[in-house]
Amino acid sequence: MGRVNSKAGQSAEIIIQGDCIEAMNALPEKSVDLIFADPPYNLQLGGGLTRPDQSKVDAVDDDWDKFASFQVYDEFTRNWMNAARRVLKDTGAIWVIGSYHNIFRVGATLQDLGFWMMNDVVWRKSNPMPNFRGTRFTNAHETLIWATKSADQKKYTFNYDAMKALNDDLQMRSDWLLPICTGGERLKDGDGDKAHPTQKPEALLHRVLLATTNAGDTVLDPFFGTGTTGAVAKKLGRNFVGIEREERYIKVARERIRLIKTGAPEDLKVTTSKKAEVRIPFGTLIERGLLEPGAVLTDPAKRHAARVRADGSIVCRDATGSIHKIGAHVQGLDACNGWTFWHFKTDGKLKPIDILRQKVRAEMGEA
Amino acid sequence: MGRVNSKAGQSAEIIIQGDCIEAMNALPEKSVDLIFADPPYNLQLGGGLTRPDQSKVDAVDDDWDKFASFQVYDEFTRNWMNAARRVLKDTGAIWVIGSYHNIFRVGATLQDLGFWMMNDVVWRKSNPMPNFRGTRFTNAHETLIWATKSADQKKYTFNYDAMKALNDDLQMRSDWLLPICTGGERLKDGDGDKAHPTQKPEALLHRVLLATTNAGDTVLDPFFGTGTTGAVAKKLGRNFVGIEREERYIKVARERIRLIKTGAPEDLKVTTSKKAEVRIPFGTLIERGLLEPGAVLTDPAKRHAARVRADGSIVCRDATGSIHKIGAHVQGLDACNGWTFWHFKTDGKLKPIDILRQKVRAEMGEA
DNA sequence: TTCCGAATTGAATCTGTTG
DNA sequence: GCAACAGATTCAATTCGGA
């Protein structure tokens, strides 16, 4: 076990190689604001699975997902959660993600240890793997649990208005529709194979960190893998500590995070008060990486320019608000359809942001 | 405790008033096909919970009693689940619905008792109650767990094709979007207040029963409430046994169910899978003269050719065997469905031999 | 270069009957 | 109980290759 990467200064990025329990016990107590944990799911797969076209499904058969029994898994869970609890500030919170194989044990253990559940959140996958044999319902979601350190903890971070802004000025619900991690975001090893079997999408972490941390907070991920938590934390100006046992994952994570740029502080500010109404969640574009925080939008004639912030609000000179509100403001009008007014540059051409919305709609299928 | 309503004949509708554990223990073992359970999680409303030693549990909403209350709840859960397990047929299954307050304990207990999870299913509420104080995500879903009696249980009911038909010919996913129970469906008492605080929508039970029971099966609901399970079971031609402690809920349930009419048998038929159809050996086609010995079969691209022999085996170059074996062999695969792979020429066109099988099935159906 | 069809792939507790 | 074998079974998104 050893510290791999540590940077002093305004942004701490720490990756520790080793067992997560030992590593957490070596950290100062009550030192982190949020823990995001993606522990092994304890899948119990039978023989090989083939698709109808007889191709083979690449199973998660790694050693780190092998447990002898529920009892052994529960003990593992209690141990890492106790270590996590120690390093968590009293005002801190924890997120754990899992599937039906493990999430009920995870949830019960959280409660047993005194964590207090705020929500269970369902990640609905827009493109899950089908059930090839027609034996069950398509396993189309995973479950996240968000819990504070204790029941009597009244202070915790929840950026309610930022979530609302991200969701078209409707309260963010407990079910989130997001695609799984594929395409360019999916990290590959030298052979072109996936670098990690269970890489999570950045959009998921974006929402988690935006909702329950503030810029400058420290996020701990005890099952760091290829570093999605670190990548999004850096992008959003949060400090992070990642712990990972496998050197090969750390290597990938370091290179990945090296290339990430932190958004400018003014872009990372999130809405703290009510804003004008919007119809389509513009924030989804940022969450999904179609626009970066800090991206510049202009009108077709380039008379006005605005900067995009992480929660989907935009800034033009002194004014902050939705794409519609700011669009109306700069034109001196009462109303404006921001989707067609604001443009972004791609391939040297200005295009309305509405084409990005269409892209998202196409990807997400139903509303 | 007493039996309130029992009807002999083709459709059994039984409502039992009393404690669900005692009542289940009084039923014959291995007698029900499906259990649907909506257990209480608010221990105060659950009322009359007792510890194993029969001592009364007092108010459990104080922080100091959180751990004690989880233990008591787990004990309660183990007790009713064990009783449920006893009355369940070996081919039977159980559904349990809950929210984050109790579902993790319920799920872990199911696993501890040997039930085998098939899916966790998310009921997404299209019209959830908002979070008025803006302190959390809108609690917009509940979780259902579908589990069979044991891991090595190979036979269970899942009407895959019926679910697929219900979902526009796409596999039914594990997330279901349904409205909460309101309007005319919501039962009221004499004062116009809701008769039961957590009445479930019939649409939810409709999907559960259609997916995992057949007409004529017996469904048990140990927390019957105002009888949604019974109402839908009757509508769909399933027998049911409902157990409920409170007389006032039973009264409402009886009147409700009395008004329900069972659908006509032909309307209750659902789309079935090919697996359920009669098996036709390939040799039958030759026997019946639909293919002559010596007939030539090819794949759609005409890359491979095989000759049919009198006993239903086929020959391709040196290899002899079943249509499936040879189909797999020539493609270099482990398996192949010979019915759809091999084609024969008729009217100058290539057609899969599967249409001949369909012809035989149609003829057998008439006979 | 662009467009269209084919191929690939993702945290999966993934068959049933006969001999 | 195990081996052999029949034969049923997939959605969304991206990438690749040929026209």
Overview of this structure, please?
Chains A, B: Its EC number is 2.1.1.-. Chains A, B: It catalyses: a 2'-deoxyadenosine in DNA + S-adenosyl-L-methionine = an N(6)-methyl-2'-deoxyadenosine in DNA + S-adenosyl-L-homocysteine + H(+). Chains A, B: Residues 268-364 form the RAMA domain. Chains A, B: GO terms for molecular function: DNA binding; N-methyltransferase activity; site-specific DNA-methyltransferase (adenine-specific) activity. Two copies of one chain form a homodimer. Chain A contains twelve helices and 15 strands. By secondary structure, the first copy, chain A, is an alpha/beta fold. Chain A has two domains: 13-268, Rossmann fold (3-Layer(aba) Sandwich), CATH 3.40.50; 282-366. Residues 4-9 and 273-280 of chain A have low confidence and may be disordered. Chains A and B meet through helix 3, strand 5, strand 6 and helix 4 of A and helix 3, helix 4, strand 5, strand 6 and helix 5 of B. Chain A binds a DNA duplex (19 and 19 nucleotides) through residues 40-47, 49-53, 55, 57-60, 65, 98-101, 125-136, 138-139, 142, 179-184, 186, 194, 197-198, 363, 365.
